[in-house]
Amino acid sequence: MAKNLLVIFIIILNLSCGKLSRNEPTVKKPNIILFLADDQGWGDLSSSGNNNLSTPNIDALKTNGATFNNFYVQPVCSPTRAEILTGRYFTLTGVYETSSGGERINMNETTIAEILKKADYHTAAFGKWHNGMQPPYHPNSKGFDEYYGFASGHWGNYFSPMLEHNGALVKGNGFLVDDLTDKGLEFIENNNAEPFFLYLPYNTPHSPMQVPDEFWNKMKNKSLNFLSDANDDEDLQFTKAALAMVENIDYNVGRITDKIEKLNLEDNTIIIYLSDNGPNAYRWNGNMKGKKGSVDEGGVRTPFYIQWTKHIPKGLELNEIAGGIDILPTLCGLLSIPYSTEFPVDGEDLSALLLGNKFESKDRFLFNHWNGKTSVRSQKYRLDNENRLYDITVDRAQKNDISNENPNLANKFLEAKRKWENETITTTKQNDDRAFTLGYPKAIYTQLPARDGEAHGTIERSNRWPNDSFFTNWNSVNDSITWKVDVLEEGNFQVEMYYTCPPKDLGSIVELSFGDSKIKAKIIEAFDSPLVGKEHDRVLRMESYVKEFKPLNLGIITLPKGKGTLTLKALEMPNKAVADFRLLQFKKLD
């Protein structure tokens, strides 16, 4: 009897402690939303002190969260994106350009999405990827369950353009940033019961300078109180267009944060906002030197706001230097998620700073590099590309070179700069032997656009900037377009060629070949789309105008595994031209 009472007592004790409860709730890991603006300067927010515009929703992230006052990215798009995704300097990841294959993160790099996916996060990216188009460089191959947007760099039209959804080509719906946000809202709604990572790399205020009338009409006749202090004439029309585009971003940030509040997810969601480089033209930017493309303060300093209510103190301002390379390790630190990557990350875990825990600050170096130029930032100083030294704490405009007064200090920076360049600049256009990939086993679709092709003969690119260009002036059977490709796995592929052709030029027969494998088709349907985009531009663009393109079924081609040259040419051309060419879309059938 006493023994039975003892057993009953132990069972009751275990139940009271919850040890036998199988329904005990577990704490859900926090969600993550990462906003990335494109070509927005540090000064393009009202929270930075610029009253030329109003950005209340972005400003609220600063008010309700923490700010890094000295946060640095790289001078242009794809390098910054590579560093955010990998926690490593872009010069180590295979990135060295912004187009034509030089924007790709190497296959063996580990992204934050891959780390979070292993930690049971649902992952999505909606927007401008710019770190590789063909799988396994594609976002769906780099840890993102869902992708919608464009994988190239700049895009030629922001109103219902050609986009892709998980590799399949689709047509966008309305103004692009609004459309990307719609997809983000849908993703949040569908995944709010489980932890999610939503990456929103917006495409604005990058040119072309297009923005809905609602935002342009508020800005176009406005008097600007804050102007560029650079010795360059500011294009006020361009500035107003950029600021209108930022106000549209702010509107969309508000749509996301409203959804988070409505779903009662605010206390369990980390929200980050930053830009990928300095402003894309001279405009007010806090008196800093430089703009996009420059390794000076104005080209690489970005606003960085991070909100996690009830965890990160409201209104926290941090002066420690930080950079895009710190985002991956810091997020893992905030989430208490261990991470292992094939290569060591260069960034530091700054989560203790954000959470108010003990943190040993280091006077470390951050390196900014582009187009053969390097600058070095410490907590107090910047050594510029010309080896001039500035005390940034009192001289963000970089007007007072103190290198002659501090030769030992300047030499320390110079030595660090040379060492970093020698050790980290690994891939260049001259030594990049990566072909464009086809037949990745885990992917159905692969695009080969005009951007990545090489034209031969009379064929011309529609614009000197490749990313959203097409090929035109295809006027001879001796002309061709080629791609250096690496077929990763043998297979059969349905191929479509996206083209335009007026009725007067119908009848050409085009052939696609790879070694002994060949397919051909005749262009029998006219599709003569006009150039579009100009009607939406607020400022004359420098990029290519674009068109609608029609798919032509070329047939099924069998591609053997291995490297070689893929060639598109005309076998017959009965009239004066073949077609204008935009891209090839491969669909794996095996």
TrEMBL record:
Domain of life per record:
Bacteria
Q: Where is the Sulfatase N-terminal domain?
A: 30-336
Record's keyword terms, sorted: Calcium, Hydrolase, Metal-binding
Tell me yes or no: is Ligase among this UniProt entry's keywords.
Answer: no
> What CDD domains does the annotation carry?
ARS_like
Segment forming the signal sequence: none
Q: Does the keyword Signal apply?
A: no
Concerning InterPro entries, the annotation shows:
Alkaline_phosphatase_core_sf, Sulfatase, Sulfatase_CS, Sulfatase_N
Where in this chain does the entry annotate a coiled-coil region?
Answer: none
One Pfam family this sequence matches: Sulfatase
- Family as reported in the entry's similarity comment: Belongs to the sulfatase family.
Q: Can you name this protein?
A: Arylsulfatase A
Q: Which organism is it from?
A: Maribacter dokdonensis
**Source species taxonomy:** Bacteria, Pseudomonadati, Bacteroidota, Flavobacteriia, Flavobacteriales
